[in-house]
Each structure stands twice: as C-alpha cells, then as structure tokens.
Write a structure and sequence with these properties.
Number of strands: 13
Order of helices and strands: EHHEEEHHHHHHEEEHHEEEEEEH
Number of helices: 11
Amino acid sequence: MPARPLPRTPSRPLVRRRPLTRPLVRRAVVVALAAASLAGLMTGPARAGSDGGVGDGGPVDRELQRRLQAFVDTPGGPPGAIAVLNTGRHSEVYRAGTAEVGTGRPPRTTDHMRIASVAKAFSGAVALHLADRGRISLDDTLGRWLPRLPAAWHRVTVAQLLDHTSGLPDYTESPTFIAEFAADPRRRFDSRTLLRYVAGEPLRFRPGSAYRYSNSDNIAVALIAEAATGTRYEQLLDEIVYRPLGLRATSLPQGYRLPRPYLHGYAVDPPNPPEDLSTAISASGVWASGGIVSTPGDLGAFIRAWAGGRGLGPAVRHRQLTFVAGSSEPAGPGRNWAGLGLFAYRTRCGTVYGHTGNFPGYTQLAAATEDGRRSLTVSLTSQVNSVTNPRLLAALRVLQEDFVCRLLKRPKPHGA
C-alpha cells in the first residue's frame, strides 16, 4: 500500500471562547467544532443486529476491562465507555461507567450515539461506490460538479477531498459559523449551504501539495454525490450503505433529538458535575461531515465492510488504500495515515483501518482489519481531544492500541 508523505499545515482546533449562556453547552460547541476539524454497494451478508450479529461475549481480557474502568474513573474522564471487539464468530464487549448519569445503566451495543467524524467514512463509502460504478471519477473536479463554488476551488478533485489534501478552508473555523452555532446550538442549518461560510476564502494550499483535515471536504463530497445522481445524500446512504449492511439503527438526522435508547453524552469539567449534551446540539451544522447517529453494533458492521473494501473493484480499492501522512481528528492509535475516507492506524501489533471522531459529548474510534473480518469500536460519552484534555487523549490512544493488540491477538497491553 503506497504512502507518500506530504507537508502538514497547522490544523489547530478552534480557540475556546467565553460562554454566552448555558456555559458548558456553548463552550463545548465551540471546542468541538475544531476537534471535529469536527460504501461502494456493500453486497454480501452483513451481521448487524443488536451486537453486530454475534452474542455479547462480555469482557475476556480482565486487565483490559480494569484499564477501561480506570480510564473512566480518571479525573475528567468520561461518565461511560464501551469497547466492542468482533471477529465474525464471537464478540467481546468491555464497558465501564454508565450510559446515563444517575441511573447506573451500563452502556449497551444497541444504544444510539453520535458517531461524529466517523460519518466521513460513510461519505467516503458513497463516493467510492459511485466511482466504482462509473457515476463519478475520483479525478473529477469540484468545477465539473459544483461550478457555483468559487472558481479558485474548481481544480480540487474528489480524491483530494477524501484524503484531506484539497486545501479547502474549513467552514467550522468561520467566525460567523461559530457565532451562529454558539448562539443557538439547536439551530437548524441548511446543510447544503454550509460551504457559503468560507466561499470568500482562497484555498489554503495548492491541491495535493499538503495535508490538512477539513470538515468542508466531506460536505463537498456529499454535494458532488447529489449532483452526480440527482438523489439526496440521505437516500444515497440508505441505498448504498444502510440497507445492504442491515444497519437498522443508523441515520443522518437534521435535528437535535436522539432515538432511544441512547448513550448520554456529557461535558465534563471538574469540579462541576457532568452536563448532559446529548440533545443540546443540532446535527444539521455538521451533516455529512459528522452528523450520523448509530450504535456500537451497527458501527462495527459498517467498519468491517468499509475497511474490508466490500463491493469495491480492484482499481477503486487500490485508490482507497493509497495513503498520505496525516492523522484523523482526534488522532487514533499508533501512527496515522490518511486514505480515501479511511485512515490506517499502524500500531506495534499491526495495522487496522478506520476513522475517529469527536463531538460535544462523544468520542469515537471504529477500525477493522484489511480483510474486514475483525473490528473494534471504542465509544466514550465525553469529548476527548487535544484541546479539551490532551493528557487524557494520550492515555486514550494507548488504551486504543492495546485494544487493537487484543483484536489482533498480539502482545499483552502496556499496562499488563
């Protein structure tokens, strides 16, 4: 799998701003926008169900279970966490803390949650499916499909959008967008016009010459998919991803509500008690870049198919697995490399492929082996990134790598 190093331009999260009202909610919104900076027709049998099609085997590695609990118990740690390892034949489910503060209810594989920027893998799945079927080319430009966007952006290609080498300015860093979102976190944005917030800005660099994670990239991918097919992006997700994989608990809402049952997501700011953000924020402001709601069971089924290249022909699969140096946001375990809607996480125990994400109240990792047979999802009920808590993020990445080692049945965890 070829990899080419590219210069990395700064990808700093948005600066914390003084809250207006409801302090934790608005502060979490502003921080999150930065941190989030917030499949081909997948045929063949898919096992989603309540646990990705397999029984809940519970924790097997007691040391990993202990360390997940210790992570939750860390000052500033998330109120709850759930990690699901699936080998197709059996699963191991590790949980700590609670799905809802004050109830004692443990997180479950059927709980809904915001998957944040893991939604970018879904837009990658739609785009590569269309490319594999000849509906678009990965070398098509923004100018061909979206000619009303600024002329300076027209030479950017679909592939450059998918591996974040486009140079598009990130709309979530727009002061106007930040102010509107912070003023009313439940505001219903017109998702298809989000790029207007940066329409007056030039490209940050020549397309293909550097790497910089941008939420604008996947908004543009979804708009190209709509332009090429005449079909709404939500319907494309249903036809190309959800139905073929049996993802009955996955959706792309526009509002702020979550289907029940759900993992409650929190702003954690000791010594204050956790504040529930689960339904405080509208998904319309992130849309194809981070608005999808799913469950650990569904997410595991998706990432096995997507990382495994299910339904993709050799040419498109080769492009999917052509990597440049670049980390997901937040960074995942090991050394990170960026492909088309997919990151390679090269750990001491081997390489897995997937995506991370974070959103107010949630932090996610979904990854699988290249053959799509084994998957790992790690979901937290608070936002952990380099801005909110860099030390906790460093500890999380170590823990994620140890879960990868367990998935690949390699050496014992660092803490064992």
